[in-house]
């Protein structure tokens, strides 16, 4: 039996996933993550590894959603696969640029204060800088596949469950923290938390994952494209 949110999404009562969906999806995500952690380092080429890593990031979320959706609800609408308005998508895109600026600034401040200047996204950058074809593959993987998969699980399942049971403030912060930790204990976690907060806010506002997918995609595309454009201009 599905539950209804006490605090409605987009002004209406909707079926929401619960703890069984969350735990099943999390178990599937963790199992996929462990498998990828073992196999991905076997790829020697950084550019290929970066593209593959982005693709599997999205696939892990899709697999987790598929498992969660088979528990009780069996319908993707309950997980935020609903039509979003043009206005909501535009707001998502604008917040994607804002997330990039805020996240980049936060990472710089963190690096200056901590002295931690490690770059954990070298393989992704190698994919973006490996020529036109490699850049196209990176953009498709990182700005489309990854956002859809991660939003499907982290907003459609995780944020959805926590929002329904603990309200907006706790739901947004906790789900964003889980999303951040899933990216590892490194500077990227700061950016992931910011993206997680904004996409959770969009999810609660719209009742759809698509504005968050738009935000996530624009943020990622900007991360990949800006260094390439900068190198082209300065070169």
TrEMBL record:
<feature type="transmembrane region" description="Helical">
    <location>
        <begin position="188"/>
        <end position="205"/>
    </location>
</feature>
<keyword id="KW-1133">Transmembrane helix</keyword>
<keyword id="KW-0378">Hydrolase</keyword>
<feature type="transmembrane region" description="Helical">
    <location>
        <begin position="89"/>
        <end position="112"/>
    </location>
</feature>
<feature type="transmembrane region" description="Helical">
    <location>
        <begin position="132"/>
        <end position="150"/>
    </location>
</feature>
<dbReference type="Pfam" id="PF02517">
    <property type="entry name" value="Rce1-like"/>
</dbReference>
<feature type="transmembrane region" description="Helical">
    <location>
        <begin position="22"/>
        <end position="44"/>
    </location>
</feature>
<dbReference type="InterPro" id="IPR003675">
    <property type="entry name" value="Rce1/LyrA-like_dom"/>
</dbReference>
<dbReference type="GO" id="GO:0008237">
    <property type="term" value="F:metallopeptidase activity"/>
</dbReference>
<protein>
    <submittedName>
        <fullName>CPBP family intramembrane metalloprotease</fullName>
    </submittedName>
</protein>
<keyword id="KW-0812">Transmembrane</keyword>
<dbReference type="GO" id="GO:0004175">
    <property type="term" value="F:endopeptidase activity"/>
</dbReference>
<feature type="transmembrane region" description="Helical">
    <location>
        <begin position="50"/>
        <end position="69"/>
    </location>
</feature>
<keyword id="KW-0472">Membrane</keyword>
<keyword id="KW-0482">Metalloprotease</keyword>
<feature type="transmembrane region" description="Helical">
    <location>
        <begin position="162"/>
        <end position="182"/>
    </location>
</feature>
<keyword id="KW-0645">Protease</keyword>
<feature type="domain" description="CAAX prenyl protease 2/Lysostaphin resistance protein A-like">
    <location>
        <begin position="135"/>
        <end position="221"/>
    </location>
</feature>
<dbReference type="GO" id="GO:0080120">
    <property type="term" value="P:CAAX-box protein maturation"/>
</dbReference>
<dbReference type="InterPro" id="IPR052710">
    <property type="entry name" value="CAAX_protease"/>
</dbReference>
């Amino acid at each position: 039996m599905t539950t209804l949110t006490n605090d409605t999404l987009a002004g209406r009562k909707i079926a929401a996933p619960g703890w069984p969906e969350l735990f099943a999806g999390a178990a599937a995500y963790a199992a996929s993550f462990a498998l990828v952690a073992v196999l991905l380092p076997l790829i020697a080429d950084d550019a290929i590894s970066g593209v593959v890593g982005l693709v599997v990031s999205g696939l892990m979320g899709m697999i987790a959603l598929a498992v969660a959706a088979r528990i009780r609800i069996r319908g993707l609408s309950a997980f935020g696969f609903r039509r979003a308005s043009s206005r909501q998508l535009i707001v998502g895109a604008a917040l994607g640029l804002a997330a990039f600026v805020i996240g980049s600034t936060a990472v710089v401040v963190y690096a200056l204060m901590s002295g931690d200047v490690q770059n954990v996204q070298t393989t992704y950058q190698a994919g973006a800088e490996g020529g036109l074809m490699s850049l196209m593959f990176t953009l498709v993987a990182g700005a489309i596949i990854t956002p859809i998969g991660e939003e499907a699980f982290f907003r459609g399942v995780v944020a959805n469950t926590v929002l329904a049971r603990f309200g907006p403030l706790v739901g947004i912060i906790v789900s964003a923290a889980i999303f951040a930790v899933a990216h590892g204990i490194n500077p990227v976690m700061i950016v992931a938390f910011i993206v997680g907060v904004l996409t959770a806010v969009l999810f609660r506002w719209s009742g759809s994952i698509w504005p968050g997918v738009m935000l996530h995609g624009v943020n990622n595309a900007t991360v990949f494209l800006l260094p390439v454009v900068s190198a082209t201009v300065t070169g």
